[in-house]
Task: inverse folding
DNA sequence: CGCGATTTGTGCACGCCTTCACAAGCGCCT
DNA sequence: AGGCGCTTGTGAAGGCGTGCACAAATCGCG
C-alpha cells in the first residue's frame, strides 16, 4: 500500500530508498502538474483538491489522483493536497532540485532564441555553455555566455558536469553533434533537428519536431474538412477535453 | 472553413470513399515515415522494405507495416513499398497537398526564429502572416513578411484561408490570443506558451513545451543516477532498442 | 463524541497499442 | 512451369493506460 513512512522531504541524496517506478505516461504529466502547482502557489493557495489541480493541468481528476498515488503522494482525504509539499515532492522526483547544467549546440536562428529563453532558469535548469562550429559565431556573447567551439565540449562538459545537451544544428550535422555529446559524457539529449538519432542505450533522447506537429494538425484539418462535406451536421459536442502527452526514450 | 473539395487520392484505383479512421498513434508516426521516405527518395531508392523504412524512421517494422496497412497501403509482397507512391499517399492523408496557410502570433525571440524557419515551406506549409501587438514590432519586415497587428487577424485569416495558427507569445497572453484565433476561424493551434489553453471542442491544440521535455529528461537522469548508486556494475545489457514518439491532440 | 460532508486512494474493466508469429502473395531463377 | 526465398498484411495475445465507481479516511460542527 502506501509507504507514507517516508517522512523525509526532498533534498537528501544518500539513502534514496527504492526509486519509484513510475509509468512513462505519468512522468510526462508531472511537469504539467508542477507548473499548475506553481501557479496556484502564487495565488496563495495552500491546498488543492484533485479536481482543482486536474482542471488547472488540463487532465482528468481520476488520472491525476492515480498519478500522484504512484509517487506515494501526500494528500489528505477530505482536504486535498498540500501545494508546497507536492511541489517539493514532484521537484524531487524529477530531479529538479539539482539545478541541472544544460548545454546548447548550434547557435543559429533557433539556438539564439533558446539561449535567451528565461524559461530554462525558472524551471530548474542552468544553461552553462553554448557551442557552435562557425568561426563567425564562436566568441560571440549571448545573454552573458560566450559561444565556444564544439571542440571544447568535452572539457567544458566535464568541468560543469553537464548531463543534458540540446541540439539546434542543421539536420545533417545532428548525428555528429550527438556523437560528440555522448563522447563528452552527456546522457540526455533534446533534439530539435528533424531525423532519427542513434545513440547508446544508456542515453535518452527526446525530439521536438515542429513540422511533425503541424502535419498532425494538418491531418485533423483534412479529416474535419472531409467530415464537413458529409451529411450529418456533426458539429461541436460537449467533449470534455484531451491534452495528452508522451514520448519515450531509450534506456538500458 | 470552406475548402475546395478534393476528389480522390493520388494513387487510388478502386476508390477510397470514407476517410480512413486512423489510430492517433499511427497519425503521429506518419510524418516521421514521410520524412524518412523523402530522404530515401533523394538517394534514388524506388522501393523500400518495411524493415528498411522502419529503421530509417526509428520504429519497429511490425508497427510500421500495421500503420501502413491502416491507410490501405500499397506494398508488394516480396518487394516492398513503392517510395514515391507511398509519399503521395501519406501526403494526401495528412492533407499536405493543400499547402496550408499558417499564421504566427508573437514575433519575439522565438517567433523571430520560427518566422525564418525554412522547415515550414519544405514540409508543406506556407507562413502567410505574422502578428504582434507591440507597436515597435508591427510594420517590421521579417523574411519578406510584414508584421501585422493582431487586430487585423480576423480579416487576414479570412482572406488567406488560414486554418492553422502558431502561438509564440508570453504565457499570460496565450489564452487571449487563442480566443482571437478561434474567433478568426482558425481550427488548429500549435502553442509554444506553457500552460493549458481552453478552446472549443472543434479546435485542435498541440503544445510544445521545452521545459517539460527537459524535465522529463531530468527525471531519467535522476533515475539513472539512483540506479548507478546500486549494486554491481550493472551497465549496458543487451537491450534491443527503443524509439519514442507520440503525443496526442484534442479533437471532436 | 459522533455524524455527515468531502476528498483521496484504488480495484476493476475496458479499449488502445504494441509485438509476435505466420500464412498468403509475389518475383525470380532454374 | 515449378519451386524457392523474400516481404507484406494481419490474427491473436499481452501490456499499458484510462476512467469509473466506491470504500476508506479525515475534517468540521453540533
Ligand atoms: N528555426 C526554427 O524555428 C526551427 C524550428 C524547428 C526546428 N528547427 C531545426 O533546428 C535546427 C536549427 O535551425 P536554425 O534555423 O537555427 O538553423 P541555422 O542554420 O540558423 O543554425 C544552425 C547553427 O548550427 C551551427 N552548426 C552547424 N553545424 C554544426 C556543428 N557540427 N556543430 C555545432 N554547430 C553547428 C551553425 O553554425 C549555425 O549557427 C535545424 O535542424 C532546424 O531544422 C528550427
Ligand atoms: N524563446 C524560447 O526559446 C522559447 C522556448 C520555448 C518556449 N517559449 C515560449 O514562447 C513564448 C514566446 O517566447 P519569447 O522568448 O519569444 O518571448 P518574447 O517576449 O521575446 O516575445 C513575445 C512576443 O509576443 C508579443 N505579444 C505579447 N502579447 C501579445 C498579444 N496579446 N498578441 C500578440 N503578440 C503579443 C510581444 O510583443 C513579443 O513580441 C513564451 O510563452 C515562452 O515561454 C520560448
Result:
Amino acid at each position: 500500500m502506501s509507504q507514507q513512512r517516508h517522512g523525509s522531504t526532498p533534498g537528501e541524496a544518500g539513502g534514496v530508498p527504492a526509486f519509484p517506478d513510475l509509468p512513462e505516461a505519468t512522468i510526462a504529466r508531472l511537469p504539467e502538474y508542477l507548473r499548475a502547482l506553481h501557479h496556484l502557489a502564487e495565488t496563495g493557495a495552500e491546498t488543492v483538491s484533485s479536481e482543482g489541480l486536474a482542471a488547472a493541468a488540463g487532465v482528468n481528476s481520476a488520472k491525476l489522483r492515480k498519478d500522484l498515488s504512484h509517487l506515494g503522494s501526500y494528500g489528505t482525504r477530505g482536504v486535498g493536497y498540500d501545494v508546497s509539499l507536492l511541489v517539493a515532492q514532484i521537484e524531487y522526483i524529477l530531479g529538479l532540485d539539482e539545478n541541472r547544467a544544460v548545454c546548447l549546440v548550434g547557435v543559429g536562428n533557433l539556438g539564439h532564441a533558446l539561449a535567451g529563453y528565461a524559461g530554462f532558469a525558472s524551471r530548474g535548469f542552468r544553461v552553462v555553455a553554448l557551442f557552435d562550429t562557425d568561426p563567425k559565431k564562436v566568441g560571440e556573447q549571448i545573454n552573458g555566455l560566450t559561444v565556444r567551439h564544439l571542440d571544447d565540449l568535452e572539457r567544458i562538459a566535464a568541468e560543469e558536469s553537464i548531463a543534458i545537451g540540446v541540439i539546434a544544428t542543421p539536420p545533417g550535422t545532428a548525428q555528429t553533434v550527438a556523437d560528440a555529446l555522448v563522447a563528452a559524457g552527456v546522457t540526455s539529449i533534446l533534439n530539435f533537428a528533424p531525423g532519427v538519432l542513434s545513440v547508446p542505450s544508456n542515453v535518452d533522447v527526446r525530439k521536438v519536431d515542429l513540422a511533425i506537429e503541424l502535419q498532425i494538425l494538418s491531418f485533423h484539418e483534412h479529416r474535419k474538412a472531409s467530415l464537413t462535406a458529409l451529411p450529418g451536421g456533426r458539429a461541436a459536442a460537449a467533449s470534455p477535453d484531451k491534452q495528452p502527452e508522451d514520448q519515450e526514450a531509450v534506456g538500458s
User: Anything to note?
Assistant: The two ends of chain A are 28 Å apart (CA to CA). Residues 1-2, 49-51, 62, 65-66, 68-69, 73, 75-81 of chain A lie near DNA strand C (CB under 10 Å from a C1'). The pocket of nicotinamide-adenine-dinucleotide (ligand 1) is lined by residues A 105-111, 131-134, 137, 150, 168-171, 173, 176-177, 192-194, 210; B 113-114, 117, 119 (CB under 6 Å). Chain A has three domains: 2-96, 99-207, 211-238.
